[in-house]
Request: fold
Amino acid sequence: MDLPSVTLRPNEIADVDIEPLKGGVYGRADFDDVSIQVLNTGTSGSLIGALNGQDSSTGMTYDVPLRDIGGLRNSTGAYPWRLDHDLSTIVSISNIAPMRSEIVAQINYPGGPYLLNPRRLAAGETVIYDLRKIRDEQIPDSNGHTIPLSVNGGQFRWFIHGPGSGRLIGRAEMLSASKSISSSYSCPGSSCPAQFSYAYLDPDPVYLGPGDYAVVRAKEIDCDDFNCIGPFNAWVTSWDVTDPYGAVLYYDNGDNLQLVGFNGGTAYLRANIGYERYYWEEQASYCQDEGMDTGYADGNARAMKVTGISPDRGLVGTSPRITISGRGLGDSGSTSVEGDSGLTVDNVTNFSVNDTQISANMTIAANATPGQHTLTVHVGDVDDTVHFFVQIPKALVRQTFPETITPGQVSTGVGPLIAITDGDVKRIDGGVLDSHRCGAYRNYLYQLLDQDNPAKPILAVLTVQETFSDYSGPSGIKRIDGPASTNNVGYLADTNAITTPAGQCLTTAVTTTEKQHFSVTIGQQTLTLTTVILITMGFDPANGGTYTVTSAFDTP
Amino acid sequence: MKTQGGLMLRAVLITCFVLVTVAAIQGQASATKGSTASSQVVLAKTAGPVGLGRIDAVSALLFGFTNAEIPGGIVRIVNCYGSEPQVKIPADASVKQLLEIVALKVPEYRWRIDDGVVNVIPYTSFPVPLDIRISEFQVEELSALDALNRLLDNMQLKQELQARGLFQGLKLSGGGFPISKKRITLDLKDSTLLEALNAIVRSDGRAVWGYTLRPCNGRNEYEINLLVH
Reply:
């Protein structure tokens, strides 16, 4: 609403009665809060004024100094606030520019501060901060903090913010109905508004599991000559996302970036931030606005996805070194691997430059439940899982002789019958078991398998106990039980020999049979393999003498 | 320092016992030689579990020594016409408990620890020629099995064994990949067979020698080999 203009002569004082406006606004809630703007056609500083009012319900009078728009320093403010007794403090800040302007407000108190994110005001818009309402209703600030009910006062600071913002002007009104006191504060906060110092992304890095959702914001710290304020939401002009692996799906939501973990990997994020650059012109005692400048805040989003583990199985009671593959697996500081019951994982290290592999030490307890287990890979607050199979020895199968073995096999895992008259009994690897013997022997090669279906090899060096039963043959020569070792791919060699000392070759018929059993001791448990082998060895003096050394699976 | 022990093997052919002429253990029920502390460490090692149930005594010793990863030596007198004594060993048994259980079941046995090697030798009238002297025995960078084969090729030893009425005969044998990959070097002068055997298994760290006597069919057939290697 406009009132008629008034022309004043030099040094003239005039009252402007706004009583005539009452008729137009009385009873209208949208006029509960209003501002008075006095336009001066004279030179700067040629007019001063004050607004006097009276509350008709309480009888309180108000004396509000009118402020000139003045320089940029007037777009800042630092006011006391009190809420003791029935005091109230209401801060009002108006955008007096013809374009939108943004304000940052911070309420200081012992144990504070209470910081609000920037608020944009349309041209002519006024924002009201009722300190009692903020405190008593425990309204949270941008960080979720509230002003304790025991706090009765402090300082209210505000300043204009953001590129292209026009001008703001504000004041604080402190009232006490019981004491019929009102006071008004409109002091500038500093010589220049606080301005951009630095910014960062929050959160950073942001960790995402497959399908996880996150919102990233740029946080800004602004400083004036005396203090720094922040962090609060920066004025983001745009986002740059560099995502070579398709790690995330993203949506540029203006002042924030919405992310969804997709393919795993690292996406590099940049928030481009606009701000106004000010400097204080000493000689003119004036805050100069140098216009818009830009800054940025960098970070990354690590979308984590586990694609595999090697080895994907391990023997109970062992401690394999595992390698987990995927994308966005982080570094040793933020990555951990958790096993379910019976599996512990530690010493996680990252040996890939692009977060695609981590390695770790796994300990499979001797009493771990055999079968499928789950490992959970944690990167920051997100995780993904991968399966790991805990093996126990179950059976032996015959395994093809390596090509380097001489003589080679005659059938899978079975060497030729080797007859000697004064020779060595040799293992499959050439080691001499016995020398100067007459007789025959045969080598066998087995591989230790686990309980899976289909069974898989157990790639571990294990001591396998061999026991013999159901012996029949000449008395006293039943073999004694004993241990043998698998090699690192689970191969178990065996030799069966029937011999006499060289020079004392057999001349009479001999036939022996026995059953060969196998067991493996792990921790405090002995695991008996299902495999039982029937071994027959003998000598038939007919036709010049024939040795027999055979073995057959009695039970697979 | 002496510790209590005593043990095994019931051979039906054994009708009386006389003191064997094994110098190192003569007159001793059981003993330790070498560091007492290291003997205590050996005895405290975990031997179990040894089999799922009852098991013959020599097998129990072999499995126990293998589990405990200790070297040893066992003299075995084969029961030609009967079954071997059976024992049941608790899953968490120590080497000492293992030895004591076997000793209870087979009181002929005596055990002692010779500088880390656990010897289990019966008190028997059958020939146990561990006192045969060997003037020289050298091996360099050989496996325990190859070292033993070298020892058994010693002509002096062969002649002494034959002189004592000991012969080799038919045997069933076998073996797989060795559980120890260690290479050993020895240079012994004027040692006994027992000392040489113990030196081999001690150097290997896990091997167990065996002297098996089969007093069957009126003939003493012997076998010296590595039961664990």
